[in-house]
Amino acid sequence: MIFIPIKLKDLPTVLNLFKEAAERIHKMNIDHWQYWKNPPKEKIQWVKEGIKNKEFFFIEDTEGLLIGVVRILQEDLRYWGKQKEKASYIHSLVVQEKYNGKGMGTKIIHEIEKKAHYANTSYLRLDADAKNPKLCKYYENLGFEKAGIKELQLSTYQLYQKKIL
Questions:
Q1: How many CA atoms, within 13 angstroms, populate the side-chain half-sphere of residue 34?
Q2: N-acetyltransferase domain: which residues (predicted)?
Q3: Alpha helices of 4-76 — where are they, by DSSP H?
Q4: b vs e for 41-69, b when ≥16 Cβ sit within 10 Å of the residue's Cβ?
Q5: What's the confidence (pLDDT) of residue 16?
Q6: 33 φ/ψ angles, rounded to the nearest 5 degrees
Q7: Which terminus of the chain has fewer CB atoms gathered within 10 Å of its CB, N or C?
Q8: How far apart, in whole angstroms, are the C-alpha atoms of residue 80 and residue 149?
Q9: How far apart are CA 86 and CA 67, in angstroms?
């Protein structure tokens, strides 16, 4: 599994991956991420900002096939505020539909966790839309513990963290 930094010219591909994910989620009757079907300016700006900060990555297999996309931050003031402990923050993890059900999301999270461990990071943190209980349970099954709730304009998010050993 290879993490490749995304460039600004790749913005349409990233937005398309988010749109496809939103459409899959909608088919499951879950009201989560639907803003990615026609993203507001602030969400597009959020992606551009992450790309400029070298926080967005394409995830490819060893043969160069695109598996998905993820944003990894070293600080997340919007969702978590200022924190004392060193942490890595996972956002916007999308796995292409053809890889669904094959454990790719779990493999990606474990790879991010390994990288964070080598960087002497104390926590791996992420959020999940509170309207998506299946996703929340998924993160809990991966060892993440509830750490709070964050209410933002577009939704309410359950915050999760996992101590890195």
A1: 11
A2: 1-165
A3: 11-27, 41-52
A4: eebeebbeebbeeebbbbbeeeeeeebbb
A5: 95
A6: 70, 15
A7: C
A8: 9
A9: 28
Which tokens in the block code for residue 111? Answer: 């790879």
127: region left, alpha or beta (phi > 0 left; psi from -120 to 50 alpha) = beta
- Contact yes or no for 15/44 (Cβ under 8 A): yes
Gap between the Cα atoms of 99 and 131, Å rounded: 23
To which residue do tokens 């879950």 refer?
A: 30
Q: Which of 97, 87, 78, 39 is nearest to 157 (CA)?
A: 78
Task: Report the C-alpha gap between 48 and 55 in whole angstroms.
Answer: 10
* Pairing mode of beta strands 2-5, 56-60: antiparallel
Q: Is the pLDDT of residue 34 over 90?
A: no
